[in-house]
Amino acid sequence: MDVRQLLEAVKTDEIDIDTAVNKLKDLPYEDLGYANIDHHRELRNGFPEVIYCEGKTDEHIIGIVDVLLKKQSNVLGTRCRKETAEKLKEIYDNVEYDELSRVLMIKNHEIKNRGKGTIAILAAGTSDISVADEAYYTAKFLGNNVERIYDVGVAGIHRLLNKRHLIEQARVVVAVAGMEGALPSVVGGMVDVPVIAVPTSVGYGASFNGLTALLAMLNSCASGISVVNIDNGFGAGYLAATINKLK
Q1: I need a labelling partner for 91 at 20 to 30 A (CA). Which of 101, 175, 205, 208 fits?
Q2: Which is higher by pLDDT, 16 or 26?
Q3: Do the Cβ atoms of 74 and 108 come closer than 8 Å?
Q4: Do 88 and 143 sit in the same domain of this protein?
Q5: Would residue 112 count as lying in a domain?
Q6: Residue 126 is part of a domain; what is its CATH number?
Q7: Which of 165, 185, 172 is nearest to 146 (CA)?
C-alpha cells in the first residue's frame, strides 16, 4: 500500500489512525541492517525499488523480498541465481523466473499498462538475447507493451529491413548488440523515436568484453541515440519505460 492509498483508507475509515502511523513509521526507508529498503522510490521516480541480486546472499534477498512484499504487490529482481529463485518459489506464490536473463518476478496483482505506445527490443544476434530479455522483462514489469525482434544484426541486414514496419511503429527502440555494435547506428537512421543502445560483452578477443561495442555506440553518427553500460539490459528497459510513459 502506497502513501496515497493509505491516506484514502484513513479518510474512508478502512484503517484507523494508529494503524496508519505504524505503517508510516517505516517510511521513507526501512533499515534491515544489511540493506535500507527505499519505500518512497515509486513516489519519487514513478517505479518501485528493484532488487539487484548479484553479490547478495540468498538470506539477504529473501529478507528484502519479504519487506518489499509488505509494502507493494509485485517485486522485480535482476541477475538472480536459479538456486535463489527456487528457494523463493518454496516461500512465495506467483514467483516467475527466466533462466536466460536471470530475471525474477513476483506478481501478486495484474500489472497495469502505463506506457503510451510499444517498446521494440532488438537483438543483433542470438548470443545477445540474455541481455535483450533482461530489457524485455524489465519493460514488461514496469507496465509496457513490448515487441521482441531478435537476430536482426547487420551481418544480414535484410533481416532487419524485413522487420522495419514493426520497428517504425514503436515509441521507443532498444537495440542490443555485441561484436562491433553497429545495430543502433543503423536503427538510429531509420526511425524518428529515441533509440537506446545496449552494448553486450559478446564477441571475439578484440571486442574487449563489450568495450568495442560501447565505444562504437558512443561514437555513433546517427542522432537520437543514448547508450547504457555493457550488458545493462535492465537500465535500457527502465529508461525505455520512463520515456514511454511520458505524455
Answers
A1: 101
A2: 16
A3: yes
A4: no
A5: no
A6: 3.40.50.1970
A7: 172
Residue 137's nearest CA partner among 121, 157, 153 is 121
Average pLDDT, integer, range 38-47: 75
Q: Please return the burial class of 13, using the count of CB atoms within 10 Å of its CB with bins 0-12, 13-18 and 19+.
A: exposed
- Asked if residue 113 is part of any domain, the answer here is no
Enter the C-alpha cell of residue 240.
525505455
Q: How many domains is the chain partitioned into structurally?
A: 2
Give 168-182 pLDDT, tens digit per residue. 999 999 999 999 999
How far apart are the C-alpha atoms of 38 and 40, rounded to whole Å? Answer: 6
Distance CA 206, CA 50 (A): 34
User: How many Å apart are CA 191 and CA 37, to the nearest integer?
Assistant: 39
Residue where a domain stops, chosen among 72, 87, 107 = 107
Question: Is pLDDT of 26 > 70?
Answer: no
Instruction: Give SS3 for 61.
Output: helix
- pLDDT per position as a tens digit, 138-150: 999 999 999 999 9
For residue 162, the enclosing domain spans 118-244
Q: Same domain, yes or no, for 188 and 147? A: yes
State pTM to two decimals.
0.86
